[in-house]
Amino acid sequence: MSAQSDIPSALAEARASHLRSHGDTAPDLEQLRQVIDAMVPFCDLVGVRVIELRPDGGVAELPDRPDLRNHMGTVHAGAIFLVAEVSGAAAFSGAMAARILGVQAFVLRDCRVSYLKPARGRLRAHGTIDTAVTRDVLTRTGTERFDLTGRSLVYDDAGVLVAKVDFDYVATVA
């Protein structure tokens, strides 16, 4: 997907396709994952991919590429942050899948990053959000703005926790 304006139509088509196939049941998270994976052009540039989308979390992956490394030969802090942030957004999308077409805004307000170990190779970020908040929002139908917290744990291929990121978001859903 090359233009931001294509995003709502892609999401609408994913929802319509699901309704044609399955009726009014839980959304097809794999189809939603594919749409979300293509939403941010910067992620294409860096190579970050959403590889898993669930109602309780999301996983994003950063490839092992020389151009993503710093002068020390380890993964650059900015690349680590990006994969963590994408996993948090994926977690939100999975939790809000039932009302994803009504999401008007999802904005990162603040974050705290702890870089724990030098990161080498491919990274996987496991994002979660406060599902108590999203479950509560999903029970209502009106437009509302709400605050939400999330966390991402970033691991290297050896399973070593290399970073922990806490997020504060604000979202609006109609």
Architecture blueprint of SSEs:
Blueprint: H1 6-22, H2 29-37, H3 41-46, E1 49-54, E2 57-62, H4 77-95, E3 103-115, E4 123-129, H5 131-138, E5 144-156, E6 161-173
Antiparallel strand pairs: 1-2, 2-4, 3-6, 4-5, 5-6
Protein name: DUF4442 domain-containing protein
Pfam families: DUF4442 (PF14539)
In CATH, the homologous superfamily goes by the name Hotdog Thioesterase
Q: Domains counted in the coordinates: how many?
A: 1
Number of helices: 5
Relative strand content: 25-35%
What spatial form do the alpha-carbon principal axes imply? globular
Instruction: State the separation between the terminal residues, measured CA to CA.
Output: 24 Å
Specify the structural class: alpha+beta
